[in-house]
Amino acid sequence: MPAEQRQSESVPTSGSSFQKQLSLWDTVNIIIGIVIGVSIFKLPSLVFGNAGSIEAGFVIWGLGGLLMLAGALCYAELASAIPETGGDYVFLSRTYGNGTGFLFGWAQFIAINPGNIGIMSYVFADYAIEFLNASGYEIPEGWSVVLASASVCILIFLNLLGLMVGKWAQNILTLAKVIGLAAIFVSGLYLGLQGTGDTVVEPVIKRPNSELHFGLAMVFVLYAFGGWNDAAFVAAEVKEPGKNIPRALIAGTGGILVIYLLINLAYLWGLGSTRLLQSSTPAAELLGNAWGDYGTQIISLIIMISSLGAINGLIITGSRVNVRLGMDHRFFAALARWNVRVNAPLYSLLSQGVISIVMILLVGTETGRRLIDAPFTLIQGDFIKWEQYQDGFDTLLVATAPLFWTFFLLTGLSLIILRYKAPQMERPFRVPLYPVTPILFCLTCLYMLYASLDYARGLALLGLIPVLIGVPLYWMSRRKTSV
């Protein structure tokens, strides 16, 4: 390696080794950018339909927000007490030992974060095609994979230019996202005032050939609120982390709850309860009613921006977990190399991009699915029922959800365990109503783990098998850790 390049790279050894360039505002933008992806544009009809009434639906949205806030309070205590890069990686290592932390880092590196990036990239691609078609361009079939991969490549490139570029891209995308959500709210209010929507709220909503399912409605809502915890991954780069991380988590989650409730009100005002329940794309129908043919283009553009904001936030936060993995385990040492000149982990970002694109190709193409099926065919096992899943978005979501909720549960429990194991630890922020708040959060995670496994079935192996490969890797790559 040339001397100049060696001088521009370093391997961080602790939280103090990172340049603190993220303000409270930047951290809030990361949270909002990751959480508000596409769920609010697609899931409301499913939530209200399974809830049984509009009133019950709003209660579930509010309850989901409160459960998210309970989790945010737990993470606020952990992140303020241990403001190091890696978030859950560090919490789990401190609580259960280095092996558990390694498995989390490996799962994030090989499955969870690339899967989430792939999910959002497919959403971007689908709506980009819809936007271009509505604009008069003919897009060939099968271009979803190309556009999904291209979105990842472009955002990885921006982050390779440094944290300042990455955070400003995040701030701009989040601002554009909020403006788009405001357009939806104004459209709903406008249609409501015009009397277009049937605003009569039916006391009980009857859905053909289905039963009311409170639990399923909660699954949809909690998925819509997912991702706020990723702010803990960049704790070492936040200014005054003991103060700003709790503030960012509470402000971000609270802001998201308000936004979600307002958007659902807009759907109700603009479409009415009956049409809201019948629509699988309420945002598109709402803007179509308000602005005609331009409405389709507007909503597609809003969702494209929203997806890009989620992808960029996941790239920023996920790459920091990879850095921590490289700091502590010699097989992954390259991931910890930090380019001081641009203040970014270049190798971590590149590897994250490559894995994400491989995952996009595996689940989004027939050739990729055949490659996944090949090992199971050898043992005559038909574990994955591809026909049950609509596209790459659905497949990646279902495959990675059980892993996500497993580690989420372990992190929630770690707060309780660390209160006993390390009572002397300085905690600038303490979760209120302890131990009720963390127990409530853990019970939520446990239910979501059960629900995700029940739905995933054999597809859960797609996420589990790569993680299990991490067990022998851990024993081969152990080194003295800094946790």
TrEMBL record:
Query: Span of the secretion signal?
Result: none
Its main localization is membrane
InterPro entries reported in the protein's UniProt record: AA/rel_permease1, AminoAcid_Transporter
The answer, when asked if Lipid metabolism is one of the entry's keywords, is: no
Give its localization.
Membrane
Q: Give the classification, highest ranks.
A: Bacteria, Pseudomonadati, Planctomycetota, Planctomycetia, Planctomycetales
Membrane-related topology note: Multi-pass membrane protein
- The answer on whether this UniProt entry bears the keyword DNA damage reads no
Q: Which residues cross the membrane?
A: 28-47, 59-82, 103-125, 145-165, 172-193, 213-236, 248-269, 298-323, 344-363, 396-419, 431-450, 456-475
Q: What is this protein called?
A: Serine/threonine exchanger SteT
